Amino acid sequence: MTDKMQALYDKWRNLGISADRRARKRLPQSALFWALVIAIPPSTIVTTHLWLRSAYSGDLFHLQGFLNQYDYGIYRYRLLGRDALLFIYRHLLGAFHDRPYMMPRDPNATQLFYASYVLMDALCFSLSNFLLLLLLSDRKRHLSDQNLATYLYLTLIQTLAMAVVTPYDQLAYLLILTSLLAVTLPGRWVGYAILGLAALAGGLTRETQFLVTPALFSAALFSTGRRSRHLWAAGLINLAVFGLVYIALRVFLPGSDAVAGGNTYGGKWAFESLFALALLFYVSTSLAVRMHADIRPTVALLIFSSPYIVAILISGVLRELRLLVPILLAQTFVYVELQLDSGREARSTAASEPPQGPQNLVPEAR
Predict the structure, then answer these.
(1) Bridge partner residues of 245 (DSSP)
(2) Could you read off the pLDDT of 258-288 as tens digits, one per residue?
C-alpha cells in the first residue's frame, strides 16, 4: 500500500514539474517583472489610501489646515511636494465640485484635497516601484529569487509606511531611486546631469536626499578601479548640490532657521519603536548579504549616514516606518552595485587568463 501511494505521489509530482517547465517555456522571463510593475501600485494605493484611511495624520486634508502646517517651521523647506500637491488640487477644483470627506482625524477634510494626495502618491509610488524593479532585475528584466524577496520586503515596508500621509515621502523615495539609478547609466556625464537634477529636486523635497551620498560612498569604498572613482565623484556631486539647496532654503526663505521640527527623542514608545526598527533593519541586512557576502558595506553605510541617524533619534518619531525606508533603499543599492561589480571583476579575470585547453602532445621537430 505504501509503495502504491509513493508511486502515485511521484507521478503527480512529475506532472507538476512538467507543467511548471512548460509554463516557463511559454512565459518570457520578463513576465513577472511587468506583472509587478502593473499590479503592485494600484493594489497598494487602493488598500492604503481608499480601503483604509490614515488614522495617524490629522488636520491636513483640507486647504487651510495644510497651509498652516506646510507654510511654517521646517515644513516650509519641503517646497516641491507641497507645491505639487497644491497644483493637483487647483486643477481638480477647476474641474469638479469639492465636498466634505470623512477622515478619522480631520473633521474638515474635503474630497478633492484628499484625492490630490491619492493621485500624487499613486504617481510617485508607481514610478519608484518601476525604478526599484529596474535596480533589482538584469538586462532581460529577470528577477532572481533573492532579488524578488528583497523587492517584496522593501515594498511591504514602504506600504506600511503609508500609514503616515504626507505630500513629500513618496516623492522623496522616487528622487532617491532616480539619483542612484542615474550612476548606473552607460553615459557617465548624462548620469551626472540626471543625478544633479534629482539632487536639486530632492533638496527641495526632503532632507533624506542626503542619504544618496552615503550609499554612493559605501559602494565606492568596496568597489574597484574606475567604477570606484565614478561612485566617489557621484557622491560628491549629490552632496554638493544637496548642500547648496539646503543652505539656500534656510538663508532665503522668510522665517527663523530650522534644522528640525523639535526635540522629540524618538517620540512615544521610543525604545519599543527603536527595537522594532532594528529588527526590520536586521532582516534587510540578512537579505543584502545574500547578494554580496560582506557585512562591512552596511557598517560603512551606517557610519556615513550618521548625521541622518542622529537627527531622527533626536527629532524624529521612531514609530514612523517612513524614517527607515530611505536607509533600506540605500542599502539595497549598495549591495546590488557590489554584486554587479563582483561579476564584472570575475569576467575581467576570466578574460585575462590564458585558455586552459589540452596541451600540444606532438613533439617539436628538431
Answers:
(1) none
(2) 555 566 777 788 888 899 999 999 999 999 9
Q: Closest Cα to residue 135, out of 116, 148, 119? A: 148
- What is the C-alpha to C-alpha distance for residues 360 and 341, in angstroms, rounded to an integer? 36
Residue 331, classed as helix, strand or coil, is helix
Distance CA 202, CA 21 (A): 45
**In the beta sheet, which residues pair with residue 103?**
106
The per-residue DSSP string of 344-359 comes to HHHHHHHHHSPP----
Which residues, at least 6 apart from 258, have a Cβ–Cβ distance to it below 8 Å?
Answer: 73, 74, 77, 250
pLDDT tens-digit series, residues 168-226: 999 999 999 999 999 999 889 999 999 999 999 999 999 999 999 999 999 999 998 89
C-alpha 182/C-alpha 175 separation (Å) is: 10
- Are 208 and 358 within 8 A, CB to CB? no
Cell representation of residue 296: 562591512
Give mean pLDDT, residues 341-357: 63
Q: What is the residue-wise DSSP string for 1-44?
A: -HHHHHHHHHHHHHHHHHHHHHHHHHS-TTHHHHHHHHHHHHHH
pLDDT digits (tens, 9 = 90+) for 16-29: 555 555 545 556 77
pTM for the full model? 0.86
Q: Is 366 helix (H, G, I), strand (E, B) or coil?
A: coil
Measured between alpha carbons, how far is 260 from 142 in angstroms, rounded to an integer?
Answer: 42
Residue 73 backbone class (left: φ over 0; alpha: ψ -120 to 50; beta: rest) = left
- Cell for 268? 512615544
